[in-house]
């Protein structure tokens, strides 16, 4: 049984449980006064919009150079994948694996995972609620590691600046990649996980 079936609404701001009057067309939280909703308004539409924007920016994030490393005045811009290849050639395989995982695998998994979650909820695909909620929690947990590359670049740009001897510059690919990370993290927040259980109840009734 859901809290909604018992007439209980959860405040999205302070998480207070409220039992509003059924005659109240605009119920508010008894603790913080925020407007109460059965589910986050336009959750699926907002999440799809953020996801599609992140998918579009994911292309320049991988095609455009992410940073330029200069030694003695010489250097060339490199994309994420080119940086991974350079690390492999420099016999730094563990670091290359970390960068590849954080910069390629994690964003790709988040984009595909959120898309599958949205599609399964909207189209009532044969996926159990447990599978959906595990996917959602994993997407939320793994999102924090997507910023690893951006943090590394920001630290290197701030610390490595020795004029013509050695310097590191951030390139447009870094901005695009940071935008993808922020958008996917926001998409995971705007998605209302309670829709998973609503969808499961509908599937059980249809079955």
Automatic annotation (TrEMBL):
Membrane-spanning residues: 48-72, 92-121, 142-162, 174-191
Predominant subcellular localization, coarse grouping: membrane
InterPro entries xrefs: PqiA-like (IPR007498), PqiA-PqiB_transport (IPR051800)
Lineage top rank: taxon: Bacteria
UniProt KW keywords: Cell inner membrane, Cell membrane, Membrane, Transmembrane, Transmembrane helix
Gene Ontology CC entries for this record: plasma membrane
Protein location: Cell inner membrane
Coiled coil: none
Name listed for the protein in its UniProt record: Paraquat-inducible membrane protein A
Source organism of this protein record: Pseudomonas tohonis
């Amino acid at each position: 049984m859901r809290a909604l079936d018992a007439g209980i609404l959860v405040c999205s701001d302070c998480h207070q449980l409220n039992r509003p009057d059924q005659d109240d067309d605009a119920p508010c939280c008894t603790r913080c006064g925020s407007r109460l909703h059965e589910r986050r308004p336009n959750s699926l539409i907002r999440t799809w919009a953020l996801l599609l924007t992140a998918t579009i920016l994911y292309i320049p994030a991988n095609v455009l150079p992410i940073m330029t490393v200069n030694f003695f005045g010489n250097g060339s811009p490199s994309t994420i994948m080119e940086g991974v290849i350079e690390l492999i050639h420099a016999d730094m395989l563990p670091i290359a694996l970390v960068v590849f995982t954080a910069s390629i695998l994690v964003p790709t998994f988040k984009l595909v995972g959120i898309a599958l979650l949205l599609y399964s909820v909207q189209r009532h695909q044969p996926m159990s609620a447990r599978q959906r909620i595990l996917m959602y929690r994993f997407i939320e947990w793994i999102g924090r590691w997507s910023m690893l590359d951006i943090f590394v670049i920001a630290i290197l740009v701030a610390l490595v600046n020795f004029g013509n001897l050695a310097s590191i510059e951030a390139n447009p690919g870094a901005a695009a990649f940071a935008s993808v990370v922020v958008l996917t993290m926001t998409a995971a927040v705007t998605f209302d996980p309670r829709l998973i259980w609503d969808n499961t109840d509908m599937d059980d009734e249809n079955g």
